[in-house]
Structures are given as C-alpha cells and as structure tokens.
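RETRY 2/3 - previous attempt timed out on the joint model. Re-submitting the same 818-residue input unchanged.
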Amino acid sequence: MVEYYLECITCGKKYKAEKGLYWCKDCGSIMGTLQIIYDYESLKKTIDRDSSFSERDSIVQFEELLPVRFSTDIDKFIGGTPLYKFKNKFGIENIMIKFDGISMSGSYKDRASIIAVNKALEEGYDTIFCASTGNAASSLALLSASTLLDTYIFVPSKIPRGKLVQLVAAGARIVPIESSYDQVFDISLDIGLKNNWYCRNSAVNPYLLEGKKTGAYEIIVQNNYEVPDYCIVAVGDGTVISSICKGFSEFYKLGLIEKIPKVLGAQAEGAATVKHVFENGKPYKPIIEDVDTVADSISVGNPRDVVKACTFMEKNGGYFTTVSDEEIIHAIGEMASETGIFSEPAGAATLACLKKLLSNGKIKSCDKVCLIVTGNGLKDVDALGELSNIRKYTVEEAYKLFEGVKYEV
Amino acid sequence: MVEYYLECITCGKKYKAEKGLYWCKDCGSIMGTLQIIYDYESLKKTIDRDSSFSERDSIVQFEELLPVRFSTDIDKFIGGTPLYKFKNKFGIENIMIKFDGISMSGSYKDRASIIAVNKALEEGYDTIFCASTGNAASSLALLSASTLLDTYIFVPSKIPRGKLVQLVAAGARIVPIESSYDQVFDISLDIGLKNNWYCRNSAVNPYLLEGKKTGAYEIIVQNNYEVPDYCIVAVGDGTVISSICKGFSEFYKLGLIEKIPKVLGAQAEGAATVKHVFENGKPYKPIIEDVDTVADSISVGNPRDVVKACTFMEKNGGYFTTVSDEEIIHAIGEMASETGIFSEPAGAATLACLKKLLSNGKIKSCDKVCLIVTGNGLKDVDALGELSNIRKYTVEEAYKLFEGVKYEV
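RETRY 2/3 succeeded.
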C-alpha cells in the first residue's frame, strides 16, 4: 500500500496512521480534523497522463493515491460516474456536469463509504456505524451489505419514511432516537467509539475525504486533462468541497495539470454557516446556527468540517455564494429539461449558483464551468411537489387538443 | 451505417427499412411486430472477442450491431451498467446481477429511449411521443431533454404524483387523460401517428428492442465471454425478455459464444398474461386479462409484445415462472441486504423466481445464474411502506441499549 501520514488542519501536528486515530489529540474532534498526506515527489515518478488512468474506470484505478486496499465485490462499480459535456446550455459555451446520482446508492457519498467499508475490513473491525439522516446512511447501509460487517445507523426518529425504508431493506441495524440530528451525531460517536466500531461519520474520519477527492480526479481525467476555470459544488458539512479542493491540488502536485480550477461553494440562503465562518476570516472557528432549506442534503447548522473547508478554500482561492430555495427548485427543472440530469435539490443549487454568478458578471459565458451534482432527484421527489399541479383531460378533450394546430400542453 | 431489414414475427414477410414503418402491414400492430435482421455472416468478419468490445463502455460500442447512428451529447453514458459478481449468495455458488437501476433515468428503458431519440433525429422528426405510466416515460422525457425534440408523454390522469413530478421537471409536454393505461396507449398511437411524430411506444417500434438487446451483450462481454447457464428477467409487456433472447442469439450467430444461456421469465402471480399465452401454445395469440401486483413495472394485462416474447422464448428453450407479491417484497430486502443492490419490485421478482426454482430443484447451486435488475428501488419506495414500522428509542434507552452486551436492534 502507498505510504502516507496524517496532519492536523489546525495545528499542523503530524501523526503516523494508527487504528482508531480520527482527529488531532491536541485540538479535539471538530477543530483538529486530520488530513492525509502522501509522498507526492515519489508518486510523481510512477503516475502520468498517458497510462495511469482512464475515462470510465472506477475508484479502484486511483488505488495508488488512496490509503486503502480494495477488497469487496462491489469496489469496481463505485466511481467512474458520467461527466456530461454540453455546448451552449445555461448561457455557458462549454459546460460540464459531473453526475454522481448515477451510483450504487444514488449519491456522492458512495465514494466515502467504499473507503470506510474497505478500511474497516482491512483493520479487522466487525462493525461499522454512522449518524445520518440521508445520503450517507443509505450509502453505508448498501455498500456494507455484501460484506461481513455489522452496520449500525443512528438516525433522528422523525426521519422520513422513504429514507427509513431504504435502510431497512439494506438490512442495517437502525437506531432511531427521539432527538435532533446534532445530538444523534454525538450519541453515535459516544457509543460507536466506546464499542470499538469503525466510524463512518462525515468530517470525523479523515479517510472519507480521500474517497470523495476522486470526483475531482475524474473530472480532470474524463476531460482529457483540460482544466475547467470553475468548479461549483454544494456545501453542507464542508467535506465534499474540501475533498474537491484536495483532489485538484494533488493532481497539480503530481504534475498532471498546470493550473487548479477555482472551486465555488453553493450554499442555501437558509443554511449558509460555512460561508459565514469563511467570511468571518481566520482563525476559522466552528459556529452553530438555526437553518432552514428545501435542500436537505446541505441543511446543516453545525458543519463538522468547516475548519477544513475554509482552510482548503482559502488556499484554492474560491468563494461561497448563496441561493434561495426558489432558485434551487427552479434549477432542478432547468437542469432536467436542458440536459436530462435529474438532480436532488442540493445538486441543483450548483446551477442556481452559476446563474447568479453569470448575472452579476463573476462568471462569463466563455468560461469553462463544471457543476458537480452529488445526488439523484429520485432521492427527494417530494421537494418538487408543487410541480404536480397540471391540467388533466378527458378522452374527447385529448383528441381535440391535437386537431389541426398544435396546442401548448 | 450497418445494413439490415425488417421481418414480421408472425408471417415472416420482409421489409426494407422505411420512415414510419413500425409493424407488418398484413398482420396489424399487435400480431405483426417486426424484428430487425442483420447480415451476420458479413459482421462476423469484423467483430471478434479480443478487440471489439470492452467492459465499462457504453451502448455506443455496439454501433455496428445497431440500426442507428449516435448523435446526442449523452449517448456515451447510456449502458455500460454494472455486472456485479458474488460468491455464495442466495444458495448459488456463482451469481451475477446486471443492475440497470444505475442509469440516467434509473431503468433499463434508457437503452430503448436512446435508440428512439437518435432514430427520430436521424429521420428528421421534430417530435417524439410515448404512452407510459412509469419507467419508459421518465426515460424518454430525460433522454430527449438535451436534444431539440419536442416530447409528448401520454399518461393516465391517476398517475402517482412522484412520477408526474419527474416528467414535469424534465420539461416534457404531458397529456394526462382520464382513462385507463390501455386506452391511453391507443389514443397516443392515434394522435402521434396522425401528427407524424416519432413513436417510442414499447412493443410497437421494433427499433426499441435493438437498444434493449445490448443488456445481453454486456452480460457476455463483462463476464469475459463466459456464458451463464440461466438468465432471469422480469416480464410485463414482453419486450425486455425478447430483447435478451435476441441479444444472446446474435452473439451466438456472430460466433462470439458457443452456447446460449437459458432465459427464464419472472412474472407476478397477479399479472402472468405472457406465461398464460406461452403455455396455451402456438399459434400465440394476444389476450387481455385483469391484473393486480405490487410490481407496477410488470403489471400488464394487455402485453403488446406477447407474440414476440413467446416466439423468442420458444426458440431459446426458456420458460416462465410466477412469484407472489409477498415473495417479491421479501426479495427486495434480501437482495439489498445481501448485495447492496436496491431494486424496484419488478427487478426483485427475478430473485424471488430464483429462490423458487432452487427450492423445486430446477436450478442447482452449482449453476451459473445471472439476474437482470431493470429498475432502481428509489423509483418506488412506497412499495416497501410496511418495512418502516420499527422501534424508536429515547436518548437514555439508546445509551442503555449498548451498555455491556450488544443488543439486537
């Protein structure tokens, strides 16, 4: 396996990889999330554009740049999601959309779960757990299902029926607790770590980000190493945007690209905590806010990866933008009807963000833009409920409708 | 483009390809569906195992065996779905699952829609239509969205909200008619053909089956040309199973495989019309039955492709088996919890069928079996409603649960 060490985002302290080591012992769980560092100079000698990676291969092709050995039956069908390329859509001459809604559980979280599952097996754990209300839970439950791992999912008891059903079908051991998501997260950490279970909680476990960074790798490889000017991604906890920054930065360090795309974070107006922390400036300090948005995957008031996200975004040179729920819902329809990509609300927030930045001149029509859509619209059909009020016809009316002139339906 | 002609399944009459030709003029729309025939001897000279096809490539790699030229921005992300391979699951030593729930619209129908969209563009149509309540509608609406085609979807007005919403998001022109699905189908044909729109109705247009046959091709290619003993697929209209038979048969004619897998059709006990027609024997005659099953994708009482399905299955040597709704629902959970594949009810019917054939000795544990799962479980979460009744815990109870001994949750 490739060599690496862990480094604290806040104090810079270095650690050797060790079973059960998730955060910096000096800085604590939220401030001291670790990142994984490789020997890029040495990797540079074996990795090149021509022979290392290919367009539709899975996450397994990046094994040299990941702190894990793949061993499950499903590994080679995780990652390798489509990068659609369109001309002249949404006012942009060349737009790309990376769509991770086409994935085993239908979201970007599969990239993290597959690392967690393999790492847990590699380190000899018999049980894995996470706290989640949504995509991370269904991703872990499904991706661990074919292995021998026991899987515990801690959820708030008011989890929507549809989401619960998917977890039950996957055979996960579900612990619905009468409490808020934030408290359920803390309870799961208490119980899981005490019982020596492997932790797949977003932002706590630094290995998860390593899986997520492969989305950035794929954007570059699938675009034949041409680097987009901007890459827009929705932000909740801050883990995905951190991973995108890290992925581009690593490809740069490896000499595979000559520049790094500017990464732009799309947040909902009603849940913009990471943006607030970023704009408050250094030193970045976690805060907790009340939030409310239709985009449930990014409805986070206590972003656990905010320090990492802000630190990485500062280095990248990107910034955050907010969009309203109305703009998000509209963007779901605009994306689907222009490209065929049916996104969950959080994914469509990237298009809403693009439209805003185009209208205020920060992005130009000749800029090369990539939107990252992290979840399938089928995950949250209810968010679009209002769209279902359309006119119905009797048989006679239907026939009349199409006699002679074409009518607008 | 590759050369081909059309041949009537019932009377054998041959036709040159012609714009607007969908069925045999002598036999009529249901009895006289056509099939597309290529010059296999000539194709044999250019197609081989070593260089023609690869594991994760899209439907585009089969262009030499398809009656269409690909021209849209999304073609190369249709098909190329996972073929998962597992050891010792469900009592089978070597089982494969082909999962088309991971696809642009989340179902096998994308293979047909992409052919229809490209064919409509190639022949200069400005409008395309279909009648559907489910997967075919969302597939066409999403796959035509990025093109210049106008898309009309005829649906019964009591279509579920969730399905309607997806169509509205895709920007399709929806015509909800207060009538049964069977009547809506006929109305759509009347209106669509009169207006000279391209027809994407399952079983009417013989080009659709050509897209669907690529699933069979991929099973062979992705399994390194090792042929499974059995291939199980759910049956509603009869188009998919016909296409699977044709795909295997063509690979055999091309000398790419030495034997053909036995194709087994899984039908719901409450909707087994194709099985009834098959077992009534030749000449196969369409019948109409009342049907009722939880598996809405195969809840078909007037199967439009029954003559083709029975004819092809007779040649293949396969047969049909029925499974109960209870077995189907149970199979969704069993498949998800053993493999991580979350299937819609119709797809899980294949596992229910396998279990039945194992228990009555028709399939043995050493047989190599492939299940074809045609739709994503996220398409129909409501079917699993009863699974959501699980116990909830207070914070104190949750902590107590994991003190000392591990509890069953």
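The longest helix of chain A spans residues 239-253. Closing ticket.
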